[in-house]
Amino acid sequence: MKIYPAIDLRGGRVVRLQKGDYDREQRYELDPLALARSYAEAGAEWLHVVDLDGARSGDSANLAAIETIANQVPIKVQAGGGVRSEADFIRFVDAGVSRVVVGSFAVRDPQAARALLVRYGADSLTLALDARVDEHQVFRIATAGWRTLESVALDQMLQDFADDGFAHFLVTDIDRDGMLAGPNVALYRHLRALAPQAAILASGGVQGLDDLAELRQVGVAGVVIGKALLDGRFSLTEALA
Hints:
- This protein is α/β, with parallel strands linked by helices and about 240 residues long.
- The protein has a single domain (about 1-240), classed as TIM Barrel (Alpha-Beta Barrel), CATH 3.20.20.
- About 35% of the residues lie in helices and about 30% in strands.
- The protein has eleven helices and twelve strands.
- It has helices spanning about 30-40, 50-55, 65-70, 85-95, 105-110, 110-120, 155-165, 185-195, 210-220, 225-230, 235-240, and strands spanning about 1-10, 15-20, 20-30, 45-50, 75-80, 100, 125-135, 140-145, 150-155, 170-175, 200-205, 220-225.
- It has an eight-stranded parallel barrel, surrounded by seven helices.
- A hairpin with a 4-residue loop joins strand 8 (about 140-145) and strand 9.
- Helix 1 packs parallel to helix 3 and helix 8 packs parallel to helix 9.
- The chain is globular, with a radius of gyration of 16 Å.
- It starts with a strand and ends with a helix.
C-alpha cells in the first residue's frame, strides 16, 4: 500500500478544506515546495497535489507551483484540479506530472475519458470518484469542486470504468475529508469486492496509524493523507514504516 502525502493549493497557499467546503478553509504557513521536499526526504515515492482553484473554476492558478514541485523534487507527482479537456490534461503532463487526476470531466464525458485512456495509457491518469451519501443513503458522485451531486452511483461508475480498462481510482468520502473522523473502511471493502482489478486509493478521514493498518488489510492500493500529517497526528516516517 502506497502512502500519498497530500498538498492542497489555493491561491498558492497550502490549505485544507473541511468536507470540500471552500468556506471552511484552514491555512498552513508552509511553503509548498519545501513541504514537498520534506515528504520526499522522508521516503515518499508519490505526492498528491490538488489545485483547488482549478477544481472550482477550471482556472489552473496553481499549475506553475505544481510544475516547480514536479521538476525540482525527486518524487512522482499525482496531481489534478481543473482538468476539463484533453488540452488541460496535456498541460499537467507537460508540467511534469506523472499521473493526472481526472474527475468531473470523466464523469460527465466518459467517452472523452476513454479516449485519454487509449492515447496515453492506464498509468497516465487516475480517475477521481468523489462521493457523498444522498437522502436515500446511496453514495453518489460529486463534481465541479464537489458542489454538484450527480445522479450516477459511485459503485456503478467504478465498475463501468474498471471494466473499460481504467486502472487507478481515487475514491474520496467527501463527508470525511479534512475531518480526522477515520476513513470509511466499509466503503472501500465493498468497492474492492465489486472491482477487485481496480487499484483504489483511499482518501478522506485518516487520523491515525490504526486507520492505515485497517486500510492495508482491506487491500487498497494506496491512501492519501493530508490533514493528519499537517497537524502532526503522526509523521510520514511512521506512516511509511
